[in-house]
Structures are given as C-alpha cells and as structure tokens.
From TrEMBL:
Organism for this UniProt entry: Methylocystis heyeri
Keywords: DNA-binding, Phosphoprotein
Domain Response regulatory: 5-121
Protein name per the record: Response regulator
PROSITE patterns: HTH_LUXR_2, RESPONSE_REGULATORY
Pfam families: GerE (PF00196), Response_reg (PF00072)
SMART domains noted in UniProt: HTH_LUXR, REC
Length: 219
C-alpha cells in the first residue's frame, strides 16, 4: 500500500521537525519535502507532487495565501491544508478562496491535524473546531443569512455544489439539463453575493447546508 506523501511548509525548522515526527508517527504518512517560504513551497510541490500540502500562512516575503494560490494555478487538483496561528474566519475564507481545502489552527489538538490531513487527502474540506464555532457565531450574529433568499430548488443546488458535485452529476440527480444547472449556479452566486465558488461553499457552510458527514467536515 503506497504511503500518503506530504509537503510541509513552515518557516521554523524546529516547528517543522516537530510536525514531521507527529505526522510520520502515523501509519502510511510520509513527509517527502519541506519548505520555508512561498517560492520554495511552489518549487517543492512541482518537484515532489505530494498528495497533501500542509501550509503555514505566516511565511517570510510572500505569505502562505500566495503560496496556495500559486500552487493551485499550477495544479488545480492540489490538496492543500492550511495550518496556522490565525484563528479568525476572515483568514479562513481567504484561504478557501485561494484554493485551500482545509483550515486548522495551531491551537488545535494534534489529533485534529491528523484527521484533517486524512479528510483533505480524500478530497474533503476540513475545519478545526474553533473555526467552525466562529463560523457558527457569525451566522447567529448576522441574523438573516443571504441563503435565506434562495428557493428550495436553489438551496438544494447550492448544497450539491458545496458538496463537490459536478454540473453533470447535479443535472442527473435533479433531472435537469446541464445548461439549466449552470444558470441556477450563476443565479445563486448573484443572489447571495458570492464572489467565487469558494465563497459560495463558505456561505453554504455558514448556513449549515453541508453536513459534517459530507465532503465538508469538522476536523
């Protein structure tokens, strides 16, 4: 059975060593490359092509968000987990918009990081408990949500999009044409003010439309 290859990006060598030991203590996990800044991370990704990238945001020079964006430009299928000290939803949203598939804070238990790596490796989205709670708090504080304006059909299509379904899959499930699904997708983004598909997913998460048992999971 092949091992899960990981690129570890953090600008502190001692910190990287600690996380390397933690991750490689798990059966089937292997650190195949390390980097300490955005450019080195991009170069290491191209060379090693790991299954998962664990990315800090606080890097010297161009930060982790730029590294995420750059890697995703080169490989749209890259699976990147942000692991950072920034415990706020604004950074988390920007990370998802840049192309990250998970966001875990460094105040989380080690078990959360291990589980998040597994979630992202299989194509899911992961949030640590503190960020998930912050999203829920924002939802309560804001009162009415943008998604409240959606029709039942639009809500279901949003849920399917946020769950990672393709246009063709949604069309088959709802007995619609692909063109109709694409039109709904555009209308939903316009109606709830989503700038990108990543923002669309974030709003679906905030509204609780995606189950923790689906592709968007609590770590």
């Amino acid at each position: 059975m092949s091992k899960l290859s990981i690129l570890l990006v953090d600008d502190h060598p001692v910190v990287r060593e600690g996380y390397r030991r933690l991750l490689e203590s798990q059966p089937g996990y292997e650190i195949v490359a390390e980097a300490d800044d955005a450019m080195t991370a991009y170069q290491a990704y191209k060379k090693a092509q790991p299954d998962v990238v664990i990315m800090d945001l606080s890097l010297p020079g161009a930060g982790g968000l730029e590294a995420v964006r750059h890697i995703k430009q080169w490989d749209k299928h890259a699976r990147i987990l942000v692991f950072t000290m920034h415990a706020n939803t604004a950074f988390a949203l920007k990370a998802f918009e840049a192309g990250a598939m998970g966001y875990i804070t460094k105040s989380s238990d080690a078990s959360e990081l291990i589980r998040a790596v597994a979630i992202v490796a299989r194509g899911g989205r992961a949030l640590s408990d503190d960020i998930a709670h912050a999203v829920a708090a924002e939802r309560l504080a804001s009162g009415r949500l943008p998604t409240d304006e959606l029709s039942p059909r639009e809500t279901e299509i949003l849920r399917l999009v946020a769950s990672g379904r393709t246009t063709e899959e949604i069309a088959d499930l709802l007995n619609l044409s692909s063109k109709t699904v694409q039109n709904y997708h555009y209308q939903i983004k316009s109606k709830i003010g989503a700038r990108t598909d990543a923002h669309l997913v974030w709003l679906a998460m905030a509204a609780g439309l995606v189950s923790a048992n689906g592709p968007v999971e609590r770590a």
